[in-house]
Specification:
There is one protein chain. This protein has helices at residues 3-25, 32-47, 50-53, 123-134, 137-142, and strands at 57-68, 71-72, 76-83, 87-94, 97-104, 107-112, 117-120, 151-159, 165-172, 178-184, 190-200, 207-222, 225-235, 238-250. It is α+β, with helices and mostly antiparallel strands. The protein has one domain: Lipoprotein localisation LolA/LolB/LppX (outer membrane lipoprotein receptor (LolB), chain A). Strands 1, 2, 3, 4, 5, 6, 7, 8, 9, 10, 11, 12, 13 and 14 form a 14-stranded antiparallel sheet that branches. Helices cover 23% and strands 46% of the residues.
Length: 269
């Protein structure tokens, strides 16, 4: 074997090795799932990181305002008790009348102060509560959706006003239900939650598909935890309600009895 051929062979082997090494050391492009996980990480950090993830209970107080044909109605004062992930009791007071709706996992009950009645929730009402838990930002960022076999995907960036963009991710459940979450591309704060639903048509038993959207605003930080203090709900682009918090308290001990249906109205607290 000539020296010239031998040197050429060594050069070829060296180039092949160098090419292989370069291929191994160049980081792969992030997958769509990796992009989605990065959005979740950014959002979790923006809301308080471990402080946010360690919230076990939340007590919110403020006003709930329904909208009819785009016009605001009389606000009702509310107190909302949440024990994550699936216990919630909301008390409304308007014109001296008290209404309580309470959910605890697969069960729920209602108190109507106008009619002085105490009743179990109907299956559809419990289903509506479960859907509200599915669509919550907490469900996404805490990863509770993973237990139900849902999948995560990155949708991309969307316009969010002059000079602003939102990063969008979607979780899709095995039953086909999906939710899209938008977070500020720069600040990571939650901005929108979008999903499809159904409702009965007026004066008929037929149902129609509707587009629902929560718009989240006025982020305020308490004890290292950031949350939107205004939540506007839209159906097919028309506003139907507003939640406006006056206070939020985290990790207060909440007794289990708060969510248990009382034996009768007299035992109601």
């Amino acid at each position: 074997m000539s020296n010239k051929y031998f040197i050429g062979l060594l050069s070829l082997l060296f180039l092949c090795a160098l090419s292989s090494f370069a291929q191994q050391t160049v980081p792969p492009k992030p997958t769509e799932d990796a992009k989605a996980e990065a959005v979740i990480k950014h959002a979790t950090d923006a809301l308080g990181g471990s402080n946010y993830l360690n919230v076990k209970t939340a007590v919110g107080r403020g006003f709930f305002t329904a909208f009819h044909d785009g016009m605001s109605q009389l606000p009702a004062r509310f107190v909302d008790y949440i024990s994550y992930p699936d216990h919630e009791r909301t008390e409304f007071t308007s014109l001296g009348i008290r209404v309580i709706q309470t959910n605890a996992g697969e069960t729920g009950w209602l108190f109507d102060g106008a009619t002085k009645t105490l009743s179990d929730m109907k299956p559809q009402q419990i289903s509506d509560f479960k859907r509200s838990m599915r669509t919550s930002v907490e469900n996404l960022l805490h990863g509770w959706w993973r237990k139900e076999g849902a999948t995560l995907s990155y949708i991309g960036r969307r316009e969010a006003g002059v000079g602003k963009r939102n990063e969008t991710v979607r979780i899709t459940y095995p039953d086909g239900f999906w939710i899209e979450y938008e977070f500020g591309a720069k600040d990571g704060l939650p901005a929108k939650v979008i999903y499809k639903g159904t409702r009965k048509k007026a004066d008929t038993d037929e149902t129609e598909e509707i587009s629902e959207e929560d718009r989240l605003a006025k982020p305020i930080t308490i004890n290292g935890i950031t949350a939107p203090w205004v939540v506007d709900h839209y159906i097919n682009g028309v506003q139907t309600s507003r939640i406006n918090y006056e206070s939020l308290d985290y990790n207060q001990p909440l007794p289990d009895s708060l969510f248990v249906k009382p034996a009768n109205i007299k035992a109601l607290k």
